[in-house]
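Explain this record to help learners:
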Amino acid sequence: MLPLTDRLNRIKPSPSSMAGQRVRELRAAGRDVIGLTAGEPDFETPLHIREAAWEAMVAGKTRYTDVGGTADLREAVARKFKRENGLSYSTNEIIISTGAKQVIFNAILCTVQQGDEVIVPAPYWVSYPDITLFAGGVPVFAPCKAENGFKLTPEALERAISPRTRWLILNSPNNPSGAAYSREELVALAAVLERHPHVWVMTDDIYEHLMYDEAGFVTMAQAAPALKDRTLTINGVSKAYAMTGWRIGYAGGPAALVKAMVKLQSQSTSGANAVAQAAAVAALEGPQDFISANRDMFRARRDAVVAALGKIDGIACEAPAGAFYVFASCEGLFGSRTPDGRVIRNSDDWVSWVLESQDLAVLQGSAYGVDAHFRLSFATSMDQLAEGARRIDAAAAALIR
């Protein structure tokens, strides 16, 4: 076999992607597996967006686009940033990529050299550390305690910064915890960053429109305008518009950084899918009322899941402020034994036991940097969620305390 590079050995397959694949394999083998791992809405892409894609195909908009995105979509993104976030970007400060993940990959690969550090608040989305490692960088994990709502404090940020720090990655609302930062919390973090001008900020705002209760969404460049010139504001159409498979992400940031990212993209994927870009224009510019309707459904599901899990001995969780995940503690089950004598020592053991004993797939907290918890997605039907909670209860009840 052709030898693989050292850089590939620095990373591991995405745990969330592999979990979804495992669910499909078990179902194909005939097992009645419920998967609560998917990071995508279960709603259909709205009709007017699908129609825009069809119209683009009929009109022949099926050829290569500019590497950084079509003019139509970059202009639509600029209007979105101004309308919803109060941020002004020119089109040369905007990049369109094949999903928000590629935006993050481009930015890290363009700016992180061997030994450079990237601050990753934990819990974190699984890809942040691995992309950093692939670039030769060092992920510096800043613990965000449950008692602080899984949010980074100014003190923890200060401790994590070194002369080699290049980026702070902020994901709000957060995957997996659902934690969301208020304007005041962002301003407090910005006060730390203003003392360290070599540190840039990457905000992953992909769950922007999935905020529950009364809290409104705020992004760092909006809360702290003084940091805008060293902030990359990342978003996409996947979550709010139920367009995960369309693979369109975007970002606004300093023109020099965007130019470098476009250069890298020109030698990888080139421009994003032309038809999907046309659909994304319709998403950003068309009717938005379905977003609040979907959010109401997610809120009801969240409340049902939190209530059900709260009744299970050994499980504890708080209602997430945003996104569509519950990040529940399973620490109360550690030390328990399965009927055949195996000890549940960590979240990996717990998640494996749930799958083995109840045919229910959830994700271990260790994949997100917090081993005492596990993540389940409530982006599925109430019936599936109720059955999932029942199976978690059964798995916990079968353990010998």
About this structure: The chain is about 40% helix and 15% strand. The chain has two domains: 6-44+290-397, 47-285. The longest strand covers residues 165-171.
